[in-house]
Amino acid sequence: MKILASYVSSKGDLASLDKSCVEEMPGFNMTLLADYQGYFGGVMIQQFQPLDRNLFGFGVPSVDLSFTLEGDEQRVKLKVPPFDDAKSGKPKELPLYRDDEDILGILTVKVDVGKRLKHTGLKLELLGLVEVPVDRNGGYEFTSSVRELQPSGEIIGGEHTFAFEFAKVDKPHESYYGKSVKLRYVLRATLARGNYASNLVQEQDLWVQRVAPPPPVDRSIKMEVGIEDCLHIEFEYDKSRYHLKEVVIGKIFFLLVRIKIKHMELAILRREGVGSGTQRHSESETVTKFEIMDGAPVKGESVPVRLYLAPYALTPTYRNVQSRFSVKYFLNLVLVDEEDRRYFKQQEVTLWRKNIG
Questions:
Q1: Tens-place pLDDT, residues 193-217
Q2: What are phi and psi of 220, to 5 degrees?
Q3: Whole-structure pTM over 0.90, yes or no?
């Protein structure tokens, strides 16, 4: 089938080409419309129009965004495992900040050499987020502070730097990367490129810690547990609130022993609770466990307990953070008999941070 292809040049001159087929012309496109001014061979032809090279991002110069934090070389870095799987992958090193510390630095924008970009706005945000992997809403935002670095319509080329400062921004919670929830603070730079090109986003995670005031004077914990006519024990811990570098001191008394105990273990459990109401679910993990007794005890025997908390990856206790999640810790005492039956008793303890680091 023969088609007369018509186009209008940039000067508006009409030209006609008789071709056996229509070949795409570089820089032009063709559309058939019913209301064009004329017919050519019974086929309605629309004028060729120059293509917008920015459509869907084609022809847009590449841009690189990067952060330089003030005092970064001297700042303590904490290694944080990847959120998706804490048992694999390389840990991230995040700069450590106090909750009352200002955040200063420089955002660098680099455009391809010899290129220029007209954007529709450059902004920088400091965000506090609670994120759950199964939540498709992108997380809950509990802190937000925005700096508009450049307005829409500006043209940038080469390398530009933008100094920023976030002073006295509320950081009410300590950072946390767990098995089913993450609380993170992040610097997020967004360059809106317009012309159907996607926004360019660069993030820098920060690790925030909060020092808590000492809790009120705490009493010791003393409880009696057992199995009627078989086992009766009493355990005692010196208190129920500990800072993260403290030592748990206690003692276990055997008041009645009529089953053959093989050994006794003490473990630290961490329990995450995520969601609320009927949507709430919990997940527990054993932070550490060790054997505190080997062999069968006798009536009247006592076993001392001394557990150093500093070597373990513990965090403060989180209670109903933004009505989204909680993190609790338990001391789990386990007795194992000769038939490998396990008898256990859990006691919740509250952990708090005394020092940064």
A1: 877 678 999 999 999 999 999 888 8
A2: -70, 155
A3: no
Q: Residue 10: which pLDDT band, with cuts at 50, 70 and 90?
A: very low
Per-residue DSSP letter, 47: P
Distance CA 321, CA 139 (A): 13
Question: Quick count: other Cβ atoms within 10 Å of Cβ 127?
Answer: 18
The pLDDT value recorded for residue 205 is 96
Q: How many whole angstroms separate alpha carbon 204 and alpha carbon 185?
A: 9
Residue 106, CA distances (Å) to 68, 124, 154, 162 in order: 5, 11, 19, 5
Percentage with pLDDT > 70 across the chain: 80
Domain 63-209 classified CATH 2.60.40.640? Answer: yes
Amino acid at 70: E
- The helix (H) or strand (E) run that includes residue 279 is none
Domain ranges across the chain: 3-51, 63-209, 221-352
Strand, coil or helix: 4? strand
Residue with the larger pLDDT of the pair 228 and 38: 228
Q: Using one digit for the tens of pLDDT, what is the confidence trace for 268-301?
A: 999 999 987 778 889 999 999 999 988 888 888 8
* Domains 63-209 and 221-352 are alike in CATH topology: yes
Report the distance separating Cα 266 and Cα 290, nearest Å: 6
- The CATH architecture to which 221-352 belongs is Sandwich (2.60)
Judging by beta carbons within 10 Å of its beta carbon (0-12, 13-18, 19+), is residue 204 exposed, middle or buried?
buried
